[in-house]
From TrEMBL:
Belongs to the gamma-glutamyl phosphate reductase family. Its EC number is 1.2.1.41. This is Gamma-glutamyl phosphate reductase. It comes from the Bacteria. Residues 9-291 form the Aldehyde dehydrogenase domain. It comes from Patulibacter medicamentivorans. It is found in: Cytoplasm. PANTHER family: DELTA-1-PYRROLINE-5-CARBOXYLATE SYNTHASE, GLUTAMATE SEMIALDEHYDE DEHYDROGENASE. Signal peptide: none annotated. HAMAP family: ProA (MF_00412). Keywords: Amino-acid biosynthesis, Cytoplasm, NADP, Oxidoreductase, Proline biosynthesis. One of its GO terms (biological process) is L-proline biosynthetic process. It catalyses: L-glutamate 5-semialdehyde + phosphate + NADP(+) = L-glutamyl 5-phosphate + NADPH + H(+). The gene is proA. The keyword DNA damage does not apply. The lineage of its organism: Bacteria, Bacillati, Actinomycetota, Thermoleophilia, Solirubrobacterales.
Length: 425
């Protein structure tokens, strides 16, 4: 039985994951789904143990002065545990990507060629103090036939250790190889460099966190990396926008969960819509006391509407506030909005609110972010919302995956070539 909390080196963990990954690649869908059912059930059956561990993390967080946003991210209760178990069940309902034929064709010489999905092998995830990621990531890895090595935030040490143990024990009891789910933690930040250099054993590392984590990995990683990094998201309101929709979309993108990477940080408004739109959105954001950091053109239009207003600095355009703070800038047209987004954005999630087909087309073509929205909130960039069950993280890079990293993104492919004594002349 796996004991994720016993002391082993990161290399031991990675080596054992490699062995598990090889066996897991051949496990059939029924067994993997049975393991996921066992995990979902165990989460609820072992809730008292999990919540007790979480209480220890919360106590430590309180003592060390974690912000209320971070405390909220860390906290578990019965309802949240039930949601985590539901996400596992959502993954069960998804089609197993392993063995799926992406394309198949017969060559003139009669050889049958099939491009087929196969698991990556071993995936490592480094993530923020959100304990649900432990289970979301484990569930996605199992279903896609990969062994997983987890490294959560030290603020969630106890919660993650118990969650990983519950998942590993349930998975093994349902017939999955030992060490399919493992966690490292407790050894400090140097574990990151150790994990990121296990290229003999680990096929992919996903750092899910801020720019500091990204920078720390860039210098050292020899394992292929997919960055699930910070989001500096934008909502652009065009002159042609339906302003009722624009108010709701801008409010939702900022306020619905300001700590998330897919929340908007800057509102860009076409010069011709500014006078009608800006006072309205300022009044709407007053309920939540969103601080507006407005440029010179926007300031007189948002002041006096009940929400705090300060002058924006250049630095604001590049900042991921993760709080109830929103940059506001008036732009000349859609092209100026695109320029702003391409200069200051992080390639995560950006939206246009418009009715004019030309403006929409320009935005769709000009903004290269992982998720581009037309008349919808940026908050939808989420594996669950996209029908992918859950997500390992939201990729902000171009290779090998973009946006939510779900089951298919945890696979690669191979060519399976079937012949009948064929030789090349
Ligand atoms: N694109 C995406 O999918 C997501 C992006 N994010 C982004 O994450 C950020 C917020 O999360 P936050 O809690 O601040 O995340 P952090 O980046 O601070 O921490 C994430 C993880 O990385 C570790 N870590 C951070 N910096 C280093 C370093 N220099 N060396 C080694 N390990 C490091 C942390 O360990 P420890 O805590 O132990 O120090 C933790 O396990 C925001 O920028 C948000 O946009 C968040 C979720 C999803
Ligand atoms: N999956 C998330 C997005 C990921 C995210 O930002 O997570 P976190 O930074 O831990 O709040 C959601 O929108 O629900």
């Amino acid at each position: 039985m796996a004991t994720p909390t016993e002391v082993r080196t990161v290399t031991d963990v990675a080596r054992q994951a490699r062995a598990a990954g090889r066996r897991l690649a051949a496990v059939d869908t029924r067994t993997k789904d049975a393991a996921l059912h066992a995990i979902a059930d165990a989460l609820q059956a072992r809730a008292p143990e999990i919540l007790e561990a979480n209480r220890r993390d919360l106590d430590n967080g309180r003592e060390s002065g974690l912000s209320s946003a971070l405390m909220d991210r860390l906290a578990l209760d019965d309802a949240r545990l039930a949601k985590i178990a539901d996400a596992v069940r959502d993954v069960i309902a998804l089609r197993d990507p392993v063995g799926e034929t992406i394309e198949g064709y017969r060559l003139p010489n009669g050889l049958d060629v099939a491009r087929q999905r196969i698991p990556l092998g071993v995936v490592a995830v480094v993530y923020e103090a959100r304990p649900n990621v432990t289970i979301d990531a484990a569930a996605l890895a199992i279903k896609s036939g990969n062994a997983i090595v987890l490294r959560g935030s030290s603020s969630a040490l106890h919660s993650n250790a118990v969650l990983a143990q519950v998942a590993a024990e349930a998975a093994e009891s349902a017939g999955l190889p030992e060490h399919s789910i493992q966690i490292v933690g407790g050894g400090g930040r140097e574990e990151l460099a150790e994990l990121a250099t296990q290229d003999r054993y680990i096929d992919l590392i996903v750092p899910r966190g801020g720019e500091g984590l990204k920078a720390a990995l860039k210098g050292v990683a020899t394992v292929p990396v997919i960055f699930a990094a910070a989001g500096v998201g934008h909502v652009y309101v065009d002159a042609s926008a339906d302003l009722d929709q624009a108010v709701e979309i801008a409010q939702n993108s900022k306020v619905q969960r300001p700590s998330a990477c897919n929340a908007a940080e800057t509102l860009l408004v076409h010069r011709d819509a500014a006078a009608a739109f800006l006072p309205r959105i300022a009044r709407r954001l007053a309920d939540d006391q969103v601080e507006l950091r407005a440029d010179e053109a926007a300031r007189p239009l948002v002041e006096g509407q009940g929400t705090p207003v300060v002058a924006a600095t250049e630095q604001d355009w590049d900042t991921e506030h993760l709080a109830l703070i929103l940059g506001v800038r008036v732009v000349d047209d859609v092209h100026a909005a695109i320029d702003h987004i391409e200069t200051h954005g992080s390639g995560h999630s950006d939206a246009i609110v418009a009715r004019d087909a030309g403006a929409i087309r320009a935005f769709e073509r000009g903004v290269g972010s992982a998720a581009v929205y037309v008349n919808a909130s940026t908050r939808f960039t989420d594996g669950g919302e996209f029908g992918m069950g859950a997500e390992i993280g939201i990729s902000t890079q171009k290779l090998h995956a973009r946006g939510p990293i779900g089951l298919r993104e945890l696979t690669t492919y191979r060519y399976l070539v079937r012949g009948d004594g064929h030789v090349r002349s």
